[in-house]
Amino acid sequence: MKILTAEFIRSCVQPEQFPSGGVPEIAFVGRSNVGKSSLINSLLQRRGLAKVSRTPGKTRAVNVFSVVTGDTQLSRFLVVDLPGYGYAKVSKSLRAQWGPLIEAYLSGREELKIVVLLVESRVPAAQDRETIEWLLSIGRRPIVVATKVDKLKPSERVAGLRRLRVELGLDDRLPVIAYSSTTGEGRDRLWVSLKEQTRI
Ligand code: GTP
Ligand code: MG
Q: Which residue has a Cα nearest atom 12 of ligand 1?
């Protein structure tokens, strides 16, 4: 995929701040520290576009990026980097502020065409399964991506990814894309999947 432009648009902490204009959106959801911002940078081949941090809970607002590609099928869209869920150390009041914002966005946003759900290859959480079930219940079929797959030893890879599917309760209709932002593995597969899901 040839990325012509990818730029930061704005950080939103309230629904009124979301861009208007009806451009299709692709949202990236997942636990804190799962690798959302890194995956966005890897996918768009822009180092440092989305802020990456070793400290979980770095992304605290909904960050929106505008992307133009050389592909006719998926030529112009917004990438939405959502704050990670399930980070206990973040204060209750902050969590109380995020939860409803993210839920309202995911369930009601008309421009939202695709939800990409990130889970960590080695350590899926109970919350990941709940998120998948909730997304399906509101009619959103996520693209599931297993992140940091470079951390799996070659010998544990097949069994590890199979266990992940079981723990997440996935059936064959929901494939899992193994991804590494470090090596770029999975990038092409994810683009194919994104293109399949939409005709933007
Ligand atoms: P929040 O914004 O806090 O929700 O985190 P995030 O999901 O955006 O995660 P982020 O991309 O900031 O990455 C968290 C940590 O994981 C950083 O230390 C990254 O360098 C590391 N990381 C992300 N992707 C990969 C990967 O593919 N492989 C490896 N080995 N490390 C990764
Ligand atoms: Mg982030």
A: 52
pLDDT along the chain (200 residues), means of 10: 95 86 93 92 95 69 94 94 68 63 88 96 82 91 96 94 92 90 97 83
Residues making up the chain, counted from first to last: 200
- In the structure encoding, which two tokens stand for residue 98, read together? 């995020």
C-alpha distance from residue 176 to each of 100, 137, 141, 171, 182 (Å): 27, 19, 12, 10, 18
Q: Is 35 in the pocket of ligand 1 (CB under 6 A)?
A: yes
Instruction: Give the pTM.
Output: 0.92
User: Distance from the CA of 21 to the center of ligand 1, in angstroms?
Assistant: 31
The residue contributing the CA closest to ligand 1 atom 26 is 148
User: Which ligand 1 atom is the nearest neighbour of the CA of 59?
Assistant: 2
As given in the structure block, the two tokens for residue 62 are 């909904």
In the chain, where the domains are located: 3-198
> How far does Cα 127 stand from its chain's mean position?
15
Q: How many helices (H) and strands (E) does the chain have?
A: 5, 7
| Ligand 1: nearest atom to the Cα of 41 | 11
The CATH architecture one would assign to domain 3-198 is 3-Layer(aba) Sandwich (3.40)
Burial class of residue 112, CB neighbours in 10 A (0-12, 13-18, 19+): middle
Q: Is the CB of 36 under 6 A from ligand 1?
A: yes
Nearest-angstrom CA–CA distance, 168 and 57: 23
